[in-house]
Every structure is written in C-alpha cells, then in structure tokens.
Amino acid sequence: MEKKRNIKIEELEARRPFSVPEGYFENLTQEIMAALPEQESIYSTKITVTPWMRIRPYLYAAAAFAGIFFCIKAAVGISSRNNAAQVAQTEETTIYSDEYIDSFLETAMIDDCTMYYTLVDAN
Amino acid sequence: MAMMAYDERRILEMLHEDDISRRRAFESIVNNFSEQLYWQIRHMVLSHDDANDILQNTFIKAWVNLDSFMGYSRISTWLYRIAVNETLTFLNRQKATVPIETDDEGELSIAERLESDPYFDGDQTEQQLQEAITTLPDKQRMVFNMKYFNEMKYEEISEILGTSVGALKASFHIAVKKIEEFFNNID
C-alpha cells in the first residue's frame, strides 16, 4: 500500500506553475488601451436639445397652472351652487366648441367630472 | 509617445484634467498594475483566456467608472477590488452553467484540465496543489492566493476585501490546513 504523503505548505516552493503566450505582457498595455471605449462616449457625450425638449417645461407649467385655475374655479363654483339658478337667470349660456373642450382636456389634465363642474360652474 | 513613469500623485491629478491627460494617466496605471492583477485573476480562474478576458473587463470597468474613483484609497486597492468582483462574478456564472452532477464522462477534473493546458507547466504536486486550492470556498481561495502566491500583506488584503486582518489570518490558516488534509488523503 502506498504511503500517504505528509505535505506541509510552508515546505513547498510557492512557484507559479502557469505561463502565458509569448510576448503577452509586452503587448498587454496596448491591447487593454485599445479595448477601452472612446473617451467621448463616456465623458463628453453631447446631448442634443430638441425644440420639444426646450418648450416641454413651459408646457408642463402652463398645464399645471391651467389645472390649478380650473380646480379653484370648480371649488368656488361648488360653494356658490346655491346661487347657480340666479346666475343662470342673469347670464347667458356660453356655447363651448369641441376643439376648445379637447384642447382644454389635453392641457389641463382633469377628468370628465371636474370638466363638467368647471363648465357648469363657469356659467 | 513614451510611457510616463508611475507617480500616483501626478496620476491622480491627471485623471481630473483633459481627456488626453486622463488617457495617458490611465495608460500608466494599466502598465503598472496589469501584470500583478493578471496573476491574481489567473490563480483564481486557472485558464489564461479567462484570466485575460476578466483583466480586460476589469480595466474597462475602471475606465468607465473613473469619475467615481475619488482617490480615497490607493489606485491598486481600487483596481484589485474591481478585479475581485469581476472574478467572483465569473466564477459564480461558471458554477451556474456547469451541471452539479457529472458522470464519469462529464466535466474534466481540475487536474485533467491543467494537464491538457499548454500554459500550465507545473509538476504533479503543483497540479494537486491547484486542485486542492479549488476545493476552498471562493473568498478563502482568494485570500490564500493573495498571501501564498502574490505575497501580499494582510493589511493590503484587508483593504481590498474589507475583512479584518484577524479574520484573514484565520482564513489563511484554515485554508492551509484544508490543503494539507487534501494532500494527506491522496493515495
């Protein structure tokens, strides 16, 4: 029976048993540098600002103001609902075109119910 | 253009300058650390091709994340950390793709793989030592290789792995015992 080996790590020579292809380390820096992405793509990427990107914040702000305006109007209208009949008697009914309602819905971002109250109370 | 001498302070300054200076500074970093990082990776993955791929990825990651390196640690520590993460990710992916149960005709053993590797020139004991090392858990293996083959100081390893010096000493000691036990169990 073969005798078991009693190997001590400290007694072994800590030699690297690996090798590399010839000239590998000589060309390594160049190879790694060549594989790097271009500097521009990381640090100097220019963002193209489109006209839409430029006006978008103003549009959002306008929509938000319009929304707030109509909400306040609706709230005031509800509180003075008791006077609605009186208002109806004294003021003429306004006819809103479909285009107006569509654009209003798009910009104000309110639901149908609020829209209804807004138009009713505006009169 | 001649390669600039490695001066960490100057390199850190250049990394915050224009694109050309940045690239020159990074080239100097690559030139200074690529070989030692390669060996650290190679001892973990054994194959030259895998080590080369991981090394390339390590430097690409470092380059892409250059802005996040604030200079709080040494450049070598930062690079080692990236290399360690890349290596562990590779090993985990490798484990996930290799079936757990293999029959006699399945996966080659480490010894067989090394025997057929043209870039392994160790003798039988060195082959068995590599086989013994691969039985260790990944992090313990990393500690063993850093200490045994790369002769790194515990303080240095501690910075890279974020483990206390005491825990590293214990880990290395356990690794040595396991490897010796592996040898003792070979008929």
Please outline the helices and strands.
The complex is a heterodimer of chains A (123) and B (187).
Chain A: H1 24-35, H2 39-43, H3 51-79, H4 84-90, H5 98-108, H6 112-122
Helix pairs in contact in A: 3-6
Chain B: H1 8-14, H2 19-45, H3 48-64, H4 75-97, H5 110-115, H6 124-134, H7 138-148, H8 154-161, H9 165-184
Helix pairs in contact in B: 1-2, 2-3, 2-4, 3-4, 4-8, 6-9, 7-9
Using DSSP, what is the number of strands of chain B? 0
What share of residues of chain B is helical?
A: 55-70%
Strand residue percentage of chain B: under 5%
Helical amount of chain A? 55-70%
Structural class of chain B: mainly alpha
What structural class do the secondary elements of chain A suggest?
Answer: mainly alpha
Kindly, what is the distance between the CA atoms of the first and last residues of chain B, rounded to a whole number of angstroms? 58 Å
Instruction: Please provide the ordered H/E string of secondary-structure elements of chain B.
Output: HHHHHHHHH
Radius of gyration of chain A, in angstroms, nearest whole number: 38 Å
Q: What does the average pLDDT of chain B come to?
A: 89
For the termini of chain A, the CA-CA separation is 109 Å
The most extensive contact between chains is: A-B, 30 and 45 residues
Spans of chain B of at least 5 consecutive residues whose pLDDT stays below 50 are none
Order of helices and strands of chain A: HHHHHH
